[in-house]
Amino acid sequence: MTAALGLCVLFSGPASAQPETARFELGVQLPLVRLTEHQGTDAGLGGRFTYNLTKHLGLEGELNWFPGELTRTPRAPTVPMSTDRRLQGLFGIKAGTRWREIGLFGKVRPGLVNFQNKLYVVCVTAPCPPLTSSQTELALDLGAGIEFYPSRRLALRFDVGDLWIGGTGNDFLRTDDVRITRDLGHNLQVNAGVGIRF
């Protein structure tokens, strides 16, 4: 009995001395976005870095790359458009609470989204290569998530957000009277990832 009590004291002492919250987190994730005005779901690959100021508040940056081609249905049905790839960068605040094995948080992260676009045109005498453009729009990610901590160093994270994009993502098809593309506005984004805490 005395030996068992001694072992408990021996192993519980160093554990209680360890900090409850790791200062840094580095992770990778799989983001999914449902862009308004586009057909299909946008799947990508991303990375994330978090600096925890306190147990309840942290600063984090996220960079996501979406390599797939998405078709966009414009207001003029005879002009097909698509976006080849998108690059998304977000930086902001993560706030919430955490326990030994689970954490809940909310997030507010402004940023930018860059679109690489194609416009398919028809020539009378020969096939024409598509016109290309690059457009960068302001973005804001508002959402919440949950984390699981299988160990002190490992974190599994799932979050969902409303990704607001303040523009069309494609402005090279415009006239003085008609904007063929619509603003992207609110878009659903879901991330699933794993991180290392240190």
**Parts with pLDDT < 50 across at least 5 consecutive residues:** 1-19
CATH architecture name: Beta Barrel
Main sheet: which strands, in order across? Answer: 1-4-5-7-8-9-10-11
Structural class: mainly beta
Major pleated sheet: 8 strands, antiparallel, barrel
Estimate percent helicity.
under 10%
Question: What is the CATH T-level topology?
Answer: Porin
Q: How much of the polypeptide forms β-strand, as a percent range?
A: over 45%
Say how many strands there are: 11
Q: What is the total number of structural domains?
A: 1
Total DSSP helices: 1
- Our Rg estimate from Cα atoms comes to 23 Å
- Which word captures the global form? elongated
Mean pLDDT: 84
Which structural traits does this protein have?
198 residues; mainly beta; Porin; eight-stranded antiparallel barrel; 1 helix; disordered N terminus
Question: What does this 3D model show about the protein?
Answer:
- The chain is mainly β and 198 residues long.
- The protein has one helix spanning 2-17; strands at 24-34, 38-39, 42-43, 45-52, 57-66, 70-72, 81-98, 102-119, 131-148, 154-165, 185-197.
- It has an eight-stranded antiparallel β-barrel with strand order 1-4-5-7-8-9-10-11.
- The chain is elongated and about 70 Å long.
- It has a single domain (22-197), classed as Porin (Beta Barrel).
SSE layout and pairing:
Blueprint: H1 2-17, E1 24-34, E2 38-39, E3 42-43, E4 45-52, E5 57-66, E6 70-72, E7 81-98, E8 102-119, E9 131-148, E10 154-165, E11 185-197
Antiparallel strand pairs: 1-3, 1-4, 1-11, 2-6, 4-5, 5-7, 6-7, 7-8, 8-9, 9-10, 10-11
